[in-house]
């Protein structure tokens, strides 16, 4: 997938949940999705294969990346729970976990292709 195309698709995916380019979680989610799009198996070891490389680039701890994703998922749930449910494709009783959220976004991108 071409990076500019991915960027447009991610923007279209995140905007209905209130996650806009001015939020740090936006760029973190973009980086997470880029890594997963490069290699889907990274979803099996999220902290090692996704959070850590992003944290290294940002000079922070992997837990900070996880926290940003978790806050974005919670914010998305509070802003537009119906859309989050639609992305999940299965019933949710509350905000998805950080890993669930990344996987949901990735699956939505794959379905859009």
From TrEMBL:
Q: What InterPro entries would the database entry show?
A: Sig_transdc_resp-reg_C-effctor (IPR016032), Spo0A_C (IPR014879), WH-like_DNA-bd_sf (IPR036388)
Record's Pfam families? Spo0A_C
The lineage's top-level taxon is Bacteria
**Which UniProt keywords are listed?**
Initiation factor, Protein biosynthesis
Enumerate the GO terms in the molecular function aspect. Answer: translation initiation factor activity
The cross-references to Gene3D superfamilies, in alphabetical order and at most eight, read: Winged helix-like DNA-binding domain superfamily/Winged helix DNA-binding domain
The keyword Zinc-finger is assigned to this record? no
Q: Which residues form the Sporulation initiation factor Spo0A C-terminal domain?
A: 10-108
Q: What is this protein called?
A: Sporulation initiation factor Spo0A C-terminal domain-containing protein
Q: Which organism is it from?
A: Faecalibacterium faecis
């Amino acid at each position: 997938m071409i990076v500019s195309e991915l960027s447009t698709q991610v923007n279209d995916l995140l905007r209905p949940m209130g996650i806009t380019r001015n939020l740090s979680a936006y760029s973190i989610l973009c980086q997470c999705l880029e890594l997963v799009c490069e290699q889907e198996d990274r979803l099996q070891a999220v902290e090692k294969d996704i959070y850590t490389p992003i944290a290294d680039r940002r000079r922070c701890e992997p837990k900070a990346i996880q926290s940003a994703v978790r806050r974005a998922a919670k914010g998305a749930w509070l802003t537009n729970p119906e859309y989050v449910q639609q992305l999940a494709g299965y019933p949710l009783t509350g905000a998805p976990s950080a890993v669930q959220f990344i996987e949901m976004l990735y699956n939505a991108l794959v379905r859009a292709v």
